[in-house]
Amino acid sequence: MTRAEVITMVESHSIEIVRLWFTDILGRLKGFSLRVEDLPRALDEGIGFDGSSVEGFVRIEESDLLALPDPKTFVILPENFGGVRTASMICDILYPDGSPFESDPRYVLKKTLEKAKKLGYDHYYVGPELEFFYFPSDTEPRPLDAGGYFDILPLDNSVHARKETFKIMRELNIDVEVTHHEVAKSQHEIDFRYDDALKMADTVQLAKVIIKEIARKFGMFASFMPKPIFGENGSGLHTHQSLFKGDENAFYDEKDKYNLSAVGKQYIAGLLAHSKEITAVTNQWVNSYKRLVPGYEAPAYISWGRKNRSALVRVPSFKPDHHNSCRVEYRAPDPAANIYLTFSVMLAAGLKGIEEKYKIPEPIEIDIFMMSNAERQEMGIESLPDSLYSAVIQMEEGKIVRETFGDELFKKYIANKKAEWERYRVQVTDYELKEYLPTL
After folding, report:
1. Looking at domain 110-431, which of 3.40.50.880, 3.40.50.2300, 1.10.10.10, 3.30.590.10 is its CATH number?
2. What pLDDT, on a 0 to 100 scale, did the predictor assign at position 155?
């Protein structure tokens, strides 16, 4: 959609408010509401705001930034969103002179996509599987059903909310392939049909808003917390991805026994080789590491396979005549990650594997969770970081994330995550009180 088309749509649909959204370094959606009479100026010049008030942006002495809406992201929100006719657009963040703001996560993804294009890859397609929970409130992580994988009954509020969410997403031209109940009680999943990474990142941010708003309408709270319930599966953001040169899938090779080209194998090798140092981005919260443990269908070990769902990287099967479906599934990310930065570091790791022609190890097609430590060591299977702190140290010692983020954002991100770990480290938890107070 162009600038002129946006203004025409606003006028023809009697839009009263335009919401401008952008994303901070932690992936949280920020923004403000705009009068429609100010829309032309916003599209031409951007709207100024105080960047020092946004997590990880700028210091107070350099606080002025601009939010410039991208007309391609324009959507008219459903009528029940806020009570008045409202539209939204996602913004790029700029300095007052119009140059890109380096710490804008959307700019980081754009920059990484540009690198892929320079290497000859026109499209970085991604198809995420977004998992989440419905709870009674944001203070009570109590399951609302006893359902399991693909269960249909009972037709409770959770199912109705998910169906309405699906309906609204389709009305907003969000290409949802399927929705279903997940393994854990009160857990659900929405799968998006693959699209270019920047458009998909914008879509996921919008989808999260819709999911939460529809849940609220039905008297529930939707949570993207990675592991809200002890003893149940956590929520992931399994991300299917592929590189294309024009209409040609660069990952596909008909003659290979895995149907993987040399590029596809090198991409996987890059993901595996740099998985430790990108985990603080794909899994950025203390709680993320309560999910990345054996036994709950989340990866804990660094390996790849085709049918093995305990592997970090999986190459899903596809029909012989659907070679464009040849893709790589990276299973570590969770839905609370910054979607722009997550796509960026996965792509950067894969591209590094292609540039340096990394060698792919042999696939592992047995359940890694059932192996002993000695067996894993013998097969050379390493582990992902087991805490936010260890993940941050791996990121700090590596090069991929620094190269992708740039020095300024890299330093801000590291500082933020170390501060989060320190806040967590000094807490006295319920576990400690129950375990130690009566006996020590």
Report:
1. 3.30.590.10
2. 66
Residue type, 17: I
Residue owning tokens 């009263």: 16
State both tokens at 275.
């998985």
How far is Cα 312 from Cα 308, in angstroms, rounded to an integer?
9
Contact 263, 354 (CB under 8 A): yes
Strands 86-94 and 17-23: parallel
Q: Are 69 and 90 within 8 A, CB to CB?
A: yes
| Residues paired with residue 75 on neighbouring β-strands, in sequence order | 88
What is the b/e burial string over 123-156, where b = at least 16 CB atoms within 10 angstroms of the residue's CB? bbbbbbbbbbbbbeeeeebebbbebeeeeeeeee
CA gap 327, 267 in Å, rounded: 11
Task: Give the pLDDT score at 308.
Answer: 73
What's the gap between Cα 88 and its chain centre? 20
DSSP string, 129-167: EEEEEEESBTTB---S----TT------HHHHHHHHHHH
What token pair was written down for 407?
């020095």
Coil, strand or helix at 316: coil
CATH number corresponding to 3-100 = 3.10.20.70
- Distance from C-alpha of 352 to C-alpha of 403, rounded to nearest angstrom: 11
Supply the DSSP symbol for 252.
B
Pairing mode of beta strands 237-245, 382-383: unpaired
Per-domain residue ranges for the chain?
A: 3-100, 110-431
Distance CA 82, CA 291 (A): 34
* Phi and psi at residue 203, to the nearest 5°: -65, -45
Q: Say if residue 154 is preceded by a cis peptide, omega within 30 of 0.
A: yes
Q: What pLDDT digit, counting tens, does each position of 140-199 carry?
A: 899 888 877 777 766 678 888 999 999 999 999 999 999 888 888 899 999 999 999 999
* Whether pLDDT at 268 is above 90: yes
Residue whose tokens read 């913004």: 91
Q: How far apart are CA 436 and CA 336, in angstroms?
A: 32
What span, in angstroms and rounded, lies between the C-alpha atoms of 25 and 416?
Answer: 9
Reported as a single tens digit per residue, the pLDDT across 195-240 is 999 999 999 999 999 999 999 999 999 999 999 999 899 999 999 9
